[in-house]
């Protein structure tokens, strides 16, 4: 029972972090960033030295954790900000559909860049192996990594909340997310806020990359896409642009996946995802605006 | 030199021309009403000064700087503060957070925090109701309270020129009287330069000051509000009777 709870929480953590990364950017620029998953993949491969061999040549992955974590976070934030400067900045005045398609294209560029450097073969890596030892809590044996995942996610969520509530930059971001042009008329710098959102979103992608890399031990250039899909669904269920909703829906999706894995009859288990998506459709039928409707549907200027 | 000068401003929305070759200027300390019927181009003009609507032609100067085509955040830094039509309160933020958003642009200057705190107290002194609701969600304030909040928010940036678009919109007449009472008191207190857009010229005649009347994207009258208001010229200009 405890095992199920922890499985649900740790899977939900990944979805919640992913959804948050998408919701942050949607909030300030009404962009659904489909390149987010590929930023995750990029961060994972930042651990390796570029080579197309089947064997992974570990590079940054060998660093001690206190260097590894900041390095990967910086990679994520850096790539994400770069995407903003090089690509999305030119599309600021464009309509959301155009921006979305641009983000798809950008995602493919990042993916094929990785493909060129690393080939498409999945590679195995043992990232922070000391974390895979089990620990015993209340009679259940749980992987230490799962605990760390959950704790890290909680710390990130609390930290982000404090940042948004307590700092001047956080206040400016919330104001801009609700009404971008009014915020600008009050002197809030558009570029700073948008780049800040991209940096945060990229750092969140990096956090997912670290957790996912450590959990699965397999690196695959497609891996970002699967998380991205679930994370995107979570942002939609949560109410696009609503950060709290994205996190809530992320955890709900994680829980739904894990519970269905356990409760469905054995024959139906391979179709678990179909049941999860079915539940998503039901939710959207009853609450098309999402669980927590976001304010600030005002037009960007 | 004038604080704000527009020369030959034209604003187009695709094929519709909203404002046609409008020129006027304002001096420091002046109060100017822009009135006129719906669709006269009043709001477009304000939004163009604020930098959120692009101009198709002409030039705008504020406090000795050309601001045509500048980003809204840079125009705000030159001392232009805008209260847009429909108020645009940040509904999910608290009352106090709404007031504080605009103080961030002075963060590079020394002592901005204590100045922002003083400014906050000054706004609360003018609008005690805002202080009572300071930690409440701004979206839950009444229309009149929101109008006072956005005026307070505009003052928090320590502006040289405050522009207000239709402060009376959607307010009961007695609430509207209160809003104007505070505005006039504030103006006396701080030597504010005010640019107010209103549909009706009644308010301008009551408050006094200068009045510009617009129709069809052009200025039709420009003069002292009280003198203009008593003539038949204003009716003719407002409704567009020509020579009859």
Question: Can I get a quick summary?
Answer:
The complex is a heterodimer of chains A (301) and B (244). Chain A is mainly alpha-helical and 301 residues long.
Describe this structure in words.
Chain B: It comes from Mesorhizobium mediterraneum. Chain B: It holds the Pfam family ABC_tran. Chain B: GO terms for molecular function: ATP binding; ATP hydrolysis activity; branched-chain amino acid transmembrane transporter activity. The complex is a heterodimer of chains A (301) and B (244). Chain A contains eleven helices and four strands. Chain A is mainly alpha-helical and 301 residues long. Chain A has one domain. A two-stranded antiparallel ribbon of chain A has the order 1-4. In chain A, strands 2-3 form a two-stranded antiparallel sheet. In chain A, strand 2 and strand 3 form a beta hairpin. Chain B has a domain at 1-89 and 158-237: P-loop containing nucleotide triphosphate hydrolases (Rossmann fold). The A-B interface holds A 168, 171-172, 174-175, 178-179, 181-190, 295-296, 298, 301 and B 50-52, 71-73, 75-77, 81-82, 84, 88, 90-93, 97-98, 100-102, 104-105, 107, 139, 153, 157.
What are the main properties of this structure?
heterodimer; A: 301 residues; mainly alpha; two-stranded antiparallel sheet; two-stranded antiparallel ribbon; 11 helices; 4 strands; globular; disordered C terminus; B: 244 residues; alpha/beta; Rossmann fold; 6-stranded mixed beta sheet; 4-stranded antiparallel beta sheet; 10 strands; 38% helix; cell membrane (chain A); ABC_transp_permease (chain A); transmembrane (chain A)
CA-atom Rg of chain B in angstroms:
18 Å
Strand order of the largest sheet of chain B: 6-7-8-3-9-10
- The overall average pLDDT of chain B, rounded, is 89
Mean pLDDT of chain A: 86
Radius of gyration of chain A: 19 Å
Q: Which class of secondary structure composition applies to the elements of chain B?
A: alpha/beta
